[in-house]
Amino acid sequence: MSLKIGVIGTGAIGQEHIRRLNQKLVGSQVVAVTDINLEGAQKVADTYGNITVYKTYQEVVADPNVDALVITSWGPVHAEQVMAAIAVGKPVFVEKPMATTADDARKIVDAEIAFGKKLVQVGFMRRYDAGYKLLKEVIDSGKIGEPLVLHCAHRNPTVPTSYVTYMAINDTAIHELDCLHWLINDEWTSAQVIMPRATKNTHDKLKDPQILILTSAKGVRVVLEIFVNCQYGYDIQCEVVGETGIAKLPEPMSIEMRSQEKLSNTILNDWKVRFIESYDVELQDWIDSTVKGEVNGPTAWDGYLASVASDACVKAQESGAIEPIVTAARPTFYN
Ligand code: NAI
Ligand code: ISE
Hints:
Number of domains: 2
Largest sheet: 7 strands, mixed
Helix content: 25-40%
Strand order of the largest sheet: 12-11-7-10-9-8-15
Structural class: alpha/beta
Order of helices and strands: EHEHEHEHEHEHEHEEEEEEEHHHE
Shape: globular
Low-confidence stretches: none
Bound molecules: 1,4-dihydronicotinamide adenine dinucleotide, (2R,3S,4s,5R,6S)-2,3,4,5,6-pentahydroxycyclohexanone
Radius of gyration: 20 Å
CATH topology of the largest domain: Dihydrodipicolinate Reductase, domain 2
CATH class of the largest domain: Alpha Beta
Strand content: 15-25%
Mean pLDDT: 98
């Protein structure tokens, strides 16, 4: 029997996830959608047939035919939509960020604990990425000793003009805020943001690039360059310097070419392609665990931890100072 899913938000990643839920993965079927752009939602529904289009997300959440929800709307509305799903006890997969403030993230955690059962999985798909998993295996094996320094980069070719300075943190670096502490089994304690010379390819509301420096409880330092108008491609880098060796995130597979007096590899230009397998594995795992009444992937607590770190980083963007990252104690519910 298929898990019947209601999707809130039929934009870029909404369409990607609907396609994989309906055509690629096993055990799921999208039965309802909504978007504030109703025409867009209708167009997506028409592509597949047998999908009810609702005017509001509340109707999707309330539909008795909907077993579980996928939230792919804009970040600032995620928290209220997740809360609505918890209120009726429906499992929910929410794209990152789970909430755009730590206060809202904490409300989700508290609501889930009050409900008494885990319902929320957050779309931190890098934890499902084959490359990051290999890198974690190497770190956990002790082959490079204890991690000391991470050199990372998160580069997008371009972003829309609606993308502004703080989004470098809560839309983009939020992936690293989650996956790097998972990678090194540690918690963040402070953040600093340095603004280098800006590229001429940005605008006055977006400082680009930015350098984020994170410190962990064990003293590991992460230097993360966020450069969202880098022009040349979509490029994710992560190099871990350990006590006895270096481990580096593998590059996506690409044919090495010798042609016209050049030796070359292709660089991808889109997150949709770079992480295509991770999204597939992530959502298949969500379907399978949801059917069993479990949450196997990143939880609401992970969403909360990322939001606390994100708030501190946004403060650091404004203050230029080293800002502490202080999280509440982990509730036993999430052990
Ligand atoms: P998008 O702008 O293409 O799509 C968002 C859609 O949500 C739009 O169609 C918009 O009309 C709709 N929407 C906004 N408010 C709504 C509301 N209150 N109710 C219903 N629909 C509403 O944006 P995109 O790129 O699809 O991103 C959506 C979310 O997914 C964001 O939170 C983003 O950070 C996340 N994302 C995650 C990625 C990942 O790698 N895990 C990759 C891309 C996006
Ligand atoms: C986008 O929303 C994503 O989540 C992508 O993975 C990220 O690389 C990009 O910077 C975000 O805008």
